[in-house]
Amino acid sequence: MGLVHAAVGSRSPSYVSAALSQLSGPVICEPGRCYYVLVPVGTADAWIDRQGSGLGSGTWCAVPRPDCTVPVEDRRRPYWAVPVDRPGQLCDPEVVAALLQVGHERLAALERRETVHRDLLDHMRACTTCAMERNVRVIADDCDAALASHQSTTSHSSLTDQADLMRRHLAALIPMAEARRGEYEGRDRVLVPGALRDAEQLLVVAPQEDRVRTWVQLRALARVARILADAHRPRHDQPTRTVCETGAALRLTARRAR
Fold it and tell me: According to a count of CB atoms within 10 Å of the terminal CB, is the N or C end of the chain lower?
């Protein structure tokens, strides 16, 4: 059934039946198992290297009553997905083969996408460079959320929680920045040393009891953390920043496979 559902792009019985009616012949659905497409005698003998299975002499299938044209309540008994219109009218084998080929290609593409994304996830779990990149991206997103204008109306407890999160982020970023002193280029050469000094001062300031002061403190923590996070996000245009070539290639492949 997967081939048919992939070919028509739906699992809805009514949608599938409407799509299969384009075959211009009767089709039986056995829910949960397969579709039986009625074709001329002898088709199974020539059904070589094609998707699906051709049932020839010596095989059988359950044929529903003529008036059974929708799924029954127990969803197990066969029904006519495309009813018999007139005696002798059968599906064109070439049209059936083309439909199944479309389903096969779509399933293959889906499997390729799943494989690529699985490989990317496995790599990112094992690669320390990709883990660092993922972490600084999360920190940068948290900083952006903390700096959003609506935070000025947020409750004091929520502001306090976000300020604590920024302190934890800074505690992770400071050792990374200290280890790379003297290696920064461009604007980071100026911004990072200043951010480190600010971070050290901010981390010794006790949490504020007042909501407005906590909001101001949160923004100061988030701005400093954002500078340090940006300085450690790998960039392909700056070779001194560590970039995992395998991870970059896998991400590119994943984007192309979408």
Answer: C
How far apart are the C-alpha atoms of 69 and 21, rounded to whole Å? 13
Among 49, 19, 53, 57, smallest CA distance to 36 is for 53
Which residues are paired to 221 by β-bridges? none
Going 99 to 100 to 101 to 102, the CA torsion angle's sign is positive
- Rounded to whole angstroms, how far apart are CA atoms 249 and 127? 14
| DSSP string computed for 27-68 | EEEETTTEEEE---TTHHHH--S-SS----TT---PPPPTT-
> Distance (Å, rounded) from C-alpha 197 to C-alpha 93?
75
pLDDT tens string for the chain (258 positions)? Answer: 889 999 999 989 899 999 999 998 999 999 988 999 999 988 988 887 678 888 888 888 889 998 999 887 767 789 999 999 888 889 999 999 999 999 999 888 888 888 887 877 777 667 766 666 778 888 888 999 988 877 667 788 889 999 999 999 999 889 888 888 888 888 888 999 999 999 999 998 888 888 889 999 999 999 999 999 988 875 544 444 445 667 667 767 766 766
**Model pTM score:** 0.52
